[in-house]
Design brief:
The complex is a heterodimer of chains A (about 450) and B (about 100).
Chain A lengths: L3 E3 L9 E5 L2 E4 H14 L6 E3 L4 H14 L3 E3 L5 H10 L4 E4 L10 E3 L15 E3 L3 E7 L7 E6 H14 L9 E4 L6 H14 L2 E3 L6 H9 L5 E5 L1 H9 L9 E4 L6 H11 L3 E7 L3 E6 L7 E3 L3 E6 L2 E6 L2 E6 L2 E7 L2 E7 L3 E4 L2 E4 H9 L6 E5 L12 E5 L5 H9 L11 E3 L13 H10 L1
Parallel strand pairs in A: 2-12, 4-5, 4-6, 5-9, 6-7, 11-12, 11-13, 13-14, 14-15, 26-27
Antiparallel strand pairs in A: 1-8, 2-3, 9-10, 15-16, 16-17, 17-22, 18-19, 19-20, 21-22, 23-24, 25-26
Helix pairs in contact in A: 1-2, 4-5, 7-8
Chain B lengths: L2 H26 L24 H15 L7 H7 L3 H11 L9
Classes of the chains: A alpha/beta (about 450), B mainly alpha (about 100).
Chain lengths: ~450, ~100
């Protein structure tokens, strides 16, 4: 197959690809920057794209794609993950726009200056079949697992998303995201959605509620806010006057209905939720204030096998097992149940208990240990707990070692040292036993 | 002018804010530590108290509510403000419309 697709959907050299500090960046500039960076990438080196600025991230993504290199997108940049990446891909380099970047890889600083304008306006094309990104999940064996994404599949997915969200017509949108572009949701819904729908994304990633409001205000209308339940909850609680948006998009974790209703009331705009995973990409959407039912993206099908639900079709190349219990309603619709037991979602970040236990047990001096979820899941963010057998270490030392290995969101609160863990006859530690042990310490 | 009196009063006020912030923070994010044991100069992020960005959002919220102030949209400054309990207390003392004593 030698089909190709354009790098972006913008049809005029002057159409805006991104906004930074209120200044528009035109399509010709983006293409020139990507082509210039593509020439500077060392041959045969996959790129850990760590750029914090979303414009630079997108330039890096497209530069690597043009050069035929993959972007490596691990879930976090802890020293342990970097060690594992280096072991798996010894030639990996890190593209960074941070002066104090501490990632232990050969660093390629993002060029300080924009590239000069090419004489002709020509949108480069990329083979649909080319792998452009390895997006990693934590897996269950202690090693991160890459999910290879082809250019064509990514583009098809966000084109469907644009249709589902009603991003049609000639008015170009400005998309502001509070999530990083390095994860699947941010990659799809901020960078790729804008690039392949002819819209413009905001280079900044605001964090505090006042920052989100001022960043939105600095953008032209119509605006789209791409966020998560955690960020939306904080934004509403700050009680600020909210700038006008065309719609709000949320993903990474289920949005409580009351919060969804409040978001729509306060913004006077519809809120859409996206369902997907790193493995499958985005596969469904809903407007929770109208219905709890999820609508599958065109072409995507669900089926049950081995007590799991699998997604297939559409942009999905080979069927993937989903991490949630799913109640199918009919061919195109479903309801979402609980997450499967081993999978945890802390403030929108996913991991598996098995992976976390592997990391804990890999710490020198730790003899036994287990992560688990406490029972009370109230409105706020519930953290994990861990019980650890490590004579000779104190809890702070174990925590310090864990910090090197796992994303901070999954660090246990509390982490308690115990003399031993009573495993049952199959060597397992039921969550109930662990909870009882925690209460006893 | 008696600057030494002002300095003492100022220090006392800051200490009071530090203590109150320690309690507010541990309650807001259900931290398993005694508020009195938190070192005012230890980093809040990462090593030290071990807060992450999700916590910082939560802390910013309770601080905004309690002291009636919004954090400015300048991420460089925000990083400094949240670098330690004492720096956060300085910021609160300088920008809050309310004093450290609880409102009615």
């Amino acid at each position: 197959m030698s089909e190709t697709l354009p790098l972006l959907a913008h049809t005029s050299p002057e159409s805006t690809v991104a906004w930074r500090a209120g200044v528009p960046i035109p399509a010709w500039q983006f293409i020139a920057d990507a082509q210039s960076l593509a020439q500077r990438l060392p041959a045969g080196s996959p790129v850990l794209n760590a750029c914090a600025d979303r414009y630079r991230f997108a330039v890096g993504l497209c530069a690597a794609a043009l050069a035929g290199q993959r972007n490596l997108l691990p879930p976090t940049h802890t020293p342990e993950i970097i060690r594992q990446l280096r072991a798996a891909c010894p030639s990996v380099i890190c593209l960074t726009d941070q002066l104090d970047c501490r990632i232990d890889l050969p660093l390629l600083p993002f060029p300080a200056k924009h590239a000069i304008r090419a004489r002709d306006w020509l949108v480069p094309r990329i083979p649909e079949q080319r792998y452009i990104a390895d997006v990693y999940t934590s897996g269950t064996t202690g090693l991160p697992v890459p999910h290879l994404k082809r250019f064509g599949a990514l583009v098809r997915c966000v084109q469907t998303e644009a249709q589902r969200l009603g991003f049609t017509g000639s008015r170009r949108r400005a998309v502001l995201a509070t999530v990083p572009p390095q994860h699947m949701y941010g990659l799809e819904t901020s960078v790729l959605l804008s690039l392949h729908n002819g819209d413009a994304f905001c280079a900044e990633r605001p964090f505090h509620p006042t920052e989100i409001c001022s960043a939105l205000t600095a953008l032209p209308t119509p605006r789209v806010l791409v966020s998560t339940p955690v960020h939306l909850r904080a934004l509403l609680a700050a009680n600020l006057p909210l700038p006008a948006v065309e719609c709000i998009v949320s993903a990474t974790a289920p949005l409580p209905l009351a919060l969804a209703q409040e978001v729509e009331q306060r913004f006077a705009a519809p809120l859409f939720e996206i369902y997907g995973s790193t493995e499958s990409g985005q596969i469904a959407d809903r407007r929770p204030t109208q219905s709890p039912v999820w609508h599958l993206f065109t072409g995507v099908r669900l089926c049950s096998r081995e007590q799991r639900t699998w997604a297939d079709g559409g942009h999905i190349e080979t069927a993937v097992a989903l991490g949630d219990n799913i109640e199918s309603i009919n061919e195109g619709h479903f309801l979402l149940g609980d997450r499967l037991q081993d999978v945890v979602n802390i403030a929108g970040k996913r991991n598996s208990i098995a992976y976390l236990n592997h990391q804990l047990l890999a710490i020198p001096g730790v003899l036994d240990g287990a992560f688990f979820q406490p029972t009370d899941a109230d409105a706020g963010v519930t953290r994990l707990c861990a019980l650890v057998v490590a004579p000779g270490l104190d809890a702070a030392a174990v925590l310090r070692a864990l910090r090197e290995r796992v994303d901070p969101a999954f660090l246990p609160r509390p982490l308690r040292l115990v003399p031993s863990l009573q495993r049952n006859s199959t060597g397992k530690l039921p969550a109930q036993t662990l909870r009882a042990l925690l209460e006893a310490t | 002018m008696k600057p030494e009196v002002d300095v003492a009063a100022r220090t006392q006020e800051l200490d009071a804010i530090v203590r109150e912030l320690a309690t507010l923070i541990t309650q807001a994010i259900s931290l398993d530590v005694d508020p009195a044991s938190i070192d005012p100069d230890a980093p809040l992020y990462g090593e030290g108290l071990g807060l992450d960005s999700i916590d910082i959002l939560e802390v910013a919220l309770v601080v905004a509510k309690r002291y009636d102030l919004q954090l400015k949209a300048d991420s460089e400054e925000n990083h400094l403000i949240f670098s330690s309990l004492r720096n956060l207390a300085w910021y609160v003392a300088a920008h809050s419309a309310r004093t450290a004593s609880p409102p009615q």
